[in-house]
Structure formats: structure tokens, C-alpha cells
Amino acid sequence: MTKSLKVKEKFAVTITDADKIDAAIVTVGKEATAVKHKLHSLLVSTVKVHMDIAHEANKTDDKDAIIKSGLDAVARINGLQNASSYHSKAISVWVGLMLPFTWSQENKLWYFHETESDIVIKGDTFKALRDEPFWEVSPPPEAKPCLMLEDLDKLLKKFDKAVSNPKEGDEIALSALKHIREARKAAQVAHDEKVQAQKLVDAKALISSMEA
């Protein structure tokens, strides 16, 4: 298989009017809320469909129907989890806590095995997963405006690895890599200056204590 290196597209400035930008920000906020609500609704609906099919199949001991339903359910859950990279981690935590499916760390996907066909999702469990959305089970991280040196080093290491050994479907923002390298240099300078400033403060404090 031939490896390819994709460069991310450039984003254009589409709005230049300040009032329109403000209005668009409000719209984006509403759309973001609508997206997570829609994701949760579809996740819950997926579980409900699987529950109903499994309930009916259990009456006739139709294991094949339960297995097929379970496979369909995890396929839908994987699709929803991957539909939004921002919410994927929270959804995976929610599924892991609420549902009897198996996680593959290697493939980053949920699986349904035959042994799990005996596990019944009961009403109390369904009520809990319905009423506790994934963003409450696993809240999003707080904003972190300042990247420390170690964070930038991790980013650079990740980029360097992707560039040196690209995989099918990889998207590498080369311009972003350049900015991260520049930010790393600037952060190092700022760090060194801060260290020097602190040493100066400590030295002055020491001199003052000796003169007292």
C-alpha cells in the first residue's frame, strides 16, 4: 500500500463585518449544542433499538438475531463516536461505563462478541444512560491558553513521527508545524528569561537579608 502525505486545506476569511461575526458566533454556539444533543439522542436510540430486538429474540432464544443486533449497534456507536473528534473521547468513556461492549485499544473501536449476547441491558441501565449524557459523564477539558515547553515538545514529537512515517489518510498541517517550532523557540526564550529574572530577584533578596 502506497503511503500518502496530505496537506490540510487553507481556510479563507469569509466574514469581514464585525456584527456578522458576532451573530455567527452565537449561531455556532447553538449549533455546537445541537450537535452534542443529536449525538446523544442517536446513541440512546441505537441502544433502545438493540434492547428491543434482543428482548424479542430472547423469547425464542434467537441468539443469531441478538448477535446481529449487537454488531449493528456497535457499528452505529463507532460511527457516532468518530463523527465528532471533539466528542469522541467523552463518548468512548460513556459507552465504556454504560454498555457491555468490548473496546479495542489497537483499532480504537467497539466490538460485540457472542458472549455479550447473554448480557441484558435492563431498564435502570437504559434510564441512566439516557439521562446522563456523555458530556456530563466525561466533561470536556478546560481551556488551556498557555502551552508549556513539555506540551510543545510532545506536539513536535507527534508531528515529526507523522512526517517521517506517514500512514494512509494522515493529514499533516506543514504550516502549523512551522508555527509550533517557532512557538517552541519563543517559549524557550521566555522560560530562560523568567529563570534569569527569578535568579535576579533571589539574589537581591539575599543581599537585602545580609544587609539587614
Structure characterization notes:
It contains seven helices and two strands. The protein has 212 residues and is an all-alpha fold. It has two domains: 120 residues, no CATH class; 63 residues. It has a two-stranded antiparallel ribbon with strand order 1-2. β1 and β2 form a beta hairpin. The radius of gyration is 25 Å and the shape is elongated. The mean pLDDT is 82.
How large is the radius of gyration?
25 Å
Query: How many helices?
Result: 7
Average pLDDT confidence is 82
Distance between the termini: 75 Å
Strands ordered across the widest β-sheet = 1-2
How many strand units? 2
- Low-pLDDT windows of residues: none
How would the global form be characterised? Answer: elongated
Strand content: under 5%
Estimated structural class: mainly alpha
Order of helices and strands: HHHEEHHHH
Instruction: List the domain count as a whole number.
Output: 2
The largest sheet, given as strand count, sense and whether it forms a barrel, is: 2 strands, antiparallel
The amount of helix comes to 55-70%
Record the SSE blueprint.
Blueprint: H1 18-59, H2 63-83, H3 85-98, E1 102-104, E2 109-111, H4 123-131, H5 134-137, H6 149-164, H7 174-211
Antiparallel strand pairs: 1-2
Helix pairs in contact: 1-2, 2-3, 6-7
Keywords:
212 residues, two-stranded antiparallel ribbon, 7 helices, mainly alpha, 2 domains
Question: TL;DR?
Answer:
With 212 residues, the protein is an all-alpha fold. It is built from 7 helices and 2 strands; from the N terminus they run αααββαααα.
